[in-house]
Amino acid sequence: MNLHSRKTSGLDLEQLRNRLAGETGARYWRSLDELAETEEFQEFLHREFPRAASEWADGPSRRTFLKLMGASLALAGVGISGCSQEGSVEKIVPYVRMPEEIVPGKPLKYATAITLGGFATGVVVESHEGRPTMLEGNDKHPDSLGAINPYVQASLLGLYDPDRSQVVTRAAGLSRGISTYDMFVTAAVKALDAQRPKKGAGLRILTETVTSPSLGRLLNILLAEFPEAQWHQYEPAGGNAARLGAQLAFGQDVATRYHFDKADVILALDADFLSRGPGHLRYAREFGTRREPPAMNRLYVVESTPTITGGMADHRLPLPARRIEDFARALAQAVGVKVEGTVAGQGSWLAPLARDLQAHKGACLVVAGEAQPPAVHALAHALNQALGNVGTTVEYTAPVEEKPVDQQESLATLAKAIEGGKVEALLVLGGNPVYNAPADMDFANYLGRIPFTVHLSPYEDETSYACLWHVPAAHELEAWGDALASDGTATIQQPLIAPLYGSHSALEVLAALLRHPSRSGYEIVRDTWRQRKSDGDFETFWRTALHDGVVAGTALPAKDVKLKDDLAFAPPKSAGDGLELTFPVDPTIGDGRAANNGWLQELPKPITKLAWGNAVLISPKTAARLRVGSEDVVVIRSQGREAEAPVWVLPGQPDDSITLTLGHGRTRAGRVGNRVGANAYNLRRSDAPWFATGVELVPKGRTQTVPCTQNHRPVEKTRQEHRDDLIEGDYAHKREIFRFATLADFIKDPHFAHEHKHEEKPGEAETMYNDNFPYNGHAWGMTVNLNTCIGCNSCVIACQAENNIPVVGAEQVVLGREMHWIDLDRYYHGNLDNPDTYFQPRFCMHCENAPCELVCPVAATVHDAEGLNNMVYNRCVGTRYCSNNCPYKVRHFNFLQFADQTTPSLKLLNNPNVTVRARGVMEKCTYCVQRINAARYAAEEKGQPIKDGDIVMACQAACPTQAIVFGDINDKGSRVSKAKADPRNYGMLAELNTKPRTTYLAKLRNPNPEIAEPEGAA
Amino acid sequence: MATDQPERVQEPVLAPGHTFASVTDKISALVLERPYNWRWFAGFTIGFVLVMMLLTAITYLLLKGVGIWGINIPVGWGFAIVNFVWWIGIGHAGTLISAILLLLKQEWRTSINRFAEAMTLFAVACAGMFPLLHMGRPWFFYWLAPYPNTMALWPQWRSPLVWDVFAVSTYATVSLLFWFVGLIPDLATLRDRARHPFARIVYGILAMGWRGSAVHWHRYRTAYLLLAGLATPLVVSVHTVVSFDFTIGIVPGWHSTIFPPYFVAGAIYSGFAMVLTLAIPLRKAFKLEDMITMHHLENMAKVLLATGLIVTYGYVMETFTSWYSASTFEEFMINNRMFGPYAHTYWMLILCNCVTVQILWSSRARSSVPVLFVVSIIVNIGMWLERYVIVITSLHRDFVPAAWGMYHGTFWDYATYFGSIGLFMALLFLFIRFLPVISITEMRELVAETQEREEAREAMTQGTAP
Question: H helices within A290-373, ranges in order?
């Protein structure tokens, strides 16, 4: 505000200020009154605040007047100290002298980590004037390598979620009353004091998986003070089966680390290693590096629910979850692992698979998934051992967790203790057991029996309502902390913003319970690391660790472990018959804690393309047998419990096995997540954590619309409906929108992607408009390698975060109005029961001959000299002609006011460099034009040209397999130019002469020549 | 049709026995003498209620945005554009009848031209509303016009939507002028005959000082013929430009060179159907059978048949070219139209526009008023479906299979559509009530011509006598 220079005739502000400068103390206030009497001032007021001034003239109250004065004088730079809302006296400092490092408009970046299931993913946070607006992967972090997954990215929205709990509450009768943190601490300390004489015999602590050294340290201090107290851990979808499998195989807790970059042949047993579990971003990167010819790996997947890992498979076998153990046993027997009992033959490609694995001893890999019982994990260990993979593709380390336990067992022990009345005080630090504990443990009831319960949680959720106290937990971007990656590498988490609602981290709560209420997270974390780092200069260490986002040298060393000698693979108990129900973790919202995250709810699930909720996934054959079709509502009954959900017929789902993902059906998630989908936890028992057999499926005789982003076809609820999936794929293939070949065919004919009947583009003589613009400067372009695109959705959410893309809600998705600038298309090819799956991200192609530009009546979409197809939001009048005329259909329209422009906390989320679009305006991928311009300014400042790699698109940065490459196609040395020179490079619908700047590298598959698959395998 | 052919004796353009006075009395009485009857009230009430619904729908639309309609991505255009093209098509008959038939000296046009022109105006008003409403930010509609502005920006001239603005606004202006110029002598008649002073004043102002002098008549005829000459190319140009909205696009099903002639034929087809739909109840309700005779109806039926056949040819050629092009996209488009999820719409359209009209080959059908009424209604429906098929089935499955979708109109789509029909009805009823539905002047000329002809015939028959 620069009012000083403003000319105000009649009254000079300078004069006003001079008059004030002469006054001091009590006189000061009086002088304001006196000043107000002067004619000049009244005239000044009328000029400056005409509306308010008349208000003042109507009924001059001293209060109103002072308010006005405060505002005007603060603007004028008089610099009186204002009163903040909280009553404390804080100096308001004008932005005259720039704070160190903060340049308005220039974001700062900080390294920290976001945890998922206890494990850290390193991120670099972009902060604009103190508010984090974007997360990107930290390339120094072993579990990120620069990439990011949708969950971690979307945790940013979680920070600003207006539904986060904002205040400490305490149960008051049937409702809950507002309380304060201090009152909570007083009550908690009192409750703990009552435990002291009993050495804490009645004290229990329940956490989720803990890898944080600081949290572990504080918990151990607490346990030392209360030796009889118990620390329980429960994570509904943590790595419990892997933990138990390792126990079974080695007799000790070990963590398994894979090296997919060293594996020529990979077998995944119900393991979605590309998108689930600790380290999956690194695994995806390693997998991707080996996906390129000529040394291309080969992936076999046996799975009970189609996943993106199955989508990448060269050979995929859909098998009910209960039969995968048989498959593993048969395979083990085939490669020479001693297996007890007889093993039935499993499918046609088991023998060739066994030969393929044996031919690649030491360079193959068997991975078992979390949803498989420990025996399968043990079999995988034995297989890897027998195939000589240990030390090459598989490594074992000490466990990463602070205290590895059988979490299923741990929770059961807690439940038993509560039932026995032994628990008097329970601290639930994170987690939501009332919602996600096995259905046979009635945790809401259990919590009611304990006199003193505390729930520390970011939301006032199901568990909070069952507890005496609820304490709002700080977001990971608001608090100090630390966490480990899957290989043990530590990251110190630094806060990017002061807690929005005065929330506290688990560290601070524990410190308060240890009678250090004022101890900050910062001090706690520093103490932990001071203890760990006795050598060298601590400050240097600390600053380096914070700067890098990793603590160097903390990765766990490989460890030699031996299979137990008495390891015997007894035949499994009867696998059970009848219909099987599996409950994997939801591919977008995870185990349910992110249910209130609009980005994740609206993110189409990679295979089904469903958004906003879950559905009962069922194979076409089983659907026909049970006489149900997509969108028919059914009730699933399993051991006396039931859940109601619509059916979704899914090609590639194994017969006689249905799937309902976990994480939905929340009741106290918040406004976004409540009552979305069906709660599969209701059907999950502790003896069958991942699949149940003998379930019943009863049609309810009505239908329910399922929001789906690829099959917007609400009218055709026919039995044939699922065929449309294939039809789409067939057309995509026929139209050469998606091009693919086998590795063998590619080697024979590297130019296969161009041998098609369409002409690539008309010859120069055939077009009337030869006004080819030379593009002498930069010419931006992009390639997407379909061969390494795993369909993980990382790009979609990164783009949403970067470009302020709104969430539209389930109804709008049903209508076909989702706003994601990247449509991640999924095509099937082959037969209905086990089709090949293909992923293709589709965004604005930035055509040189853009059909959209021709038809816009107001020139709201125009080309620039670097080849960008720009969208001028301010000029757009919303005729939608451009979208109609876009052959790629990559434009998205604000049919209603989709962007939330009113919720205060969500305003903070927006990237200030990207316009928040209003209703009635078209939008689409801009090639992150704000990033191009930022790089341009930076280059100009330095006086150097923009170098290849200076500009990284949000989608490109997020991609775990680096499938997206962006750069200057005029620069022949750039990575994008090299990619475009690849014989597999092709333009989608290039025969329309659109000259797309975004092109694709055709997909390859590497099937085993020994396996003749039915029609469908590429 | 040659003009100098003798009129068929059994179907005259004007029932025998009319004199200058009787014609003037009868037509002006509709406005000045006859009391409001229940039929008028019933019709106007329906129109008025629908207009209220339209206003509600528009208010809600402006408050919320076009998202209240069923449009989506890929189907960015829905009912609004379908209705726009439909109404513009209906608006074609008026000018065609008035201008082209005037120039061709088809005297049978005389008794239907006035209300056909009025219908044109009201249809164009209804049509013009839709492109504005369908915009995401309708308050910036004027950005489509070339006007000097601080942004130094002009419209993007390559866009057919800009051409549309000019085509439709020109058409609306010329149609209005043509209609008003034709009205001036009649307004003077009403001024002279009105008893109520207020009516005298209003009609007097509108009559613009018409005194009926020879100079007036001379200038009137010149202006009228000039305007007819101006309007004639517009009949062809407007719908040609409207068809460019589609043909300029690259969407299979839109990108077609046959569209301009086929759209014009379709427009005349639907326009004449609408004239029939209106004329039949009108002549009945206001006992105008003497003036709008079977001769008129039959002629219009013939035009309907002819344009219906052209439209059918268009459908056949569209199918043929898509096969002949050997383009995957074109083939798929026609296949999807015929057998895809909107197949029922397509076949309904064929039934309405191509099959039903064949009944008009029979002269008995052409001379049956109920048959003509039913056929005209069916053609109106068929032409709406045609636009629906063109706009929606082409867009809903175009190039990229993963982007395919479905479209359905919502309550607000229907409310706006029926509301526009209500607006049309309400305007038409007001027109019937306050202006002469048939041109008194031209009817008088017709009387004169008929009398002259009678006299000539008599002279011929009595020619042998001295």
Answer: 308-311, 324-334, 350-359
